[in-house]
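Bench notes, afternoon.
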Amino acid sequence: TSNTTSVEFEHNAGDLSITKSADAASVLHGGTITYTLKVSYDSLDGARAGSLTVTDPGCDDEPVAVIDDNGTPGDDSDDFVVGDPDADGFLDDGETWTFTCSFVTGTHADDEDAVSNTAFANGTDSDGDELDEATSNTTSVEFEHDAGDLSITKSADADGDDLFDEANGDD
């Protein structure tokens, strides 16, 4: 007779990483900045990450995954997240998923020269354990300061009646 033995595998936790870029180096007040966030996973044993969430407190809405329609517009059944070519919904070792979000800048404040912020990625390893949160590089988009136009118009009240006098002297 033989004994049956089972051994549980423990997967390497791996490392999430996130990079952030902006679609412009500068923006006018009231303009829109679109950010691209790329999330990767590196695991020594080839394990994959699940339950992926990406947040960016500098965006107006939560980042959304960029979707590839696999060449079949109108057929959602074969769509996948850009960077997830096997469409398994897991961030596999070596894959890089792409997300986007945007921010509409506000009106001018004297102390503002740029919009700067970072993004974050979270997930779980193959054992369901939380991975260390990944923090992106800080992205900074400078404000363009529009000099504007200043003009002065001078007129005279030639006859003293408190009414604007036209060029020919009539009110």
